[in-house]
Structures are given as structure tokens and as C-alpha cells.
Amino acid sequence: VVAFNSGGCPESIVSSCGYVVERGDINGLINAVTKACVTPFDGNACIKRASFYDKSKLFMEYVKLYESVIS
């Protein structure tokens, strides 16, 4: 994954599975894509990181949070 430093990208991308470059930095983007092509990321590390964002798991965490707020 190569993304700009905006939105939720900086929090969700770690060095084992992606690069974050400054927003609008086209040269940085080109360099990061080139690096990713030359030295691919470990697929298992990327899958592990993606599992943190499983929608079913996150949904239940939000439900618990909302229940604790309205209790």
C-alpha cells in the first residue's frame, strides 16, 4: 500500500505493509511505488494488519462503546 498522509491512512498503514508520503508529494509517491515494486511487502504481515480492520469486529466494538455511553 502506498498512500498520502491524509485521512486515516497514517494510522492504518505500518512500515511492514506500506508507505505513507506527504500529501501532494508526487515524487515521494513515485519513489514509494518504485520501492514497493523492487522490495515487495510480506503478504502475511499485510494480512495481519488488515485483520485489525475487520468490519464485523469493529462493528461489535462500536456497539459495546455505544452501549457503555448510553448505560
Brief descriptors of the model:
59% helix; mainly alpha; 4 helices; 71 residues; two-stranded parallel sheet; 8% strand
Structure, explained:
59% of the residues lie in helices and 8% in strands. By secondary structure, the chain is mainly alpha-helical. Strands 1-2 form a two-stranded parallel ribbon. It is elongated. The model has no long low-confidence stretch (mean pLDDT 91).
Summarize this, please?
By secondary structure, the chain is mainly α. It is built from four helices and two strands.
> Would you report the number of β strands?
2
Q: So what's the overall shape? A: elongated
Share in helix: 55-70%
Q: Assembly state here? A: single chain
SSE succession: EHEHHH
- The helix-and-strand class reads mainly alpha
DSSP helical segment count: 4
Strand-helix topology:
Layout: E1 2-4, H1 9-12, E2 19-21, H2 26-38, H3 43-51, H4 55-70
Parallel strand pairs: 1-2
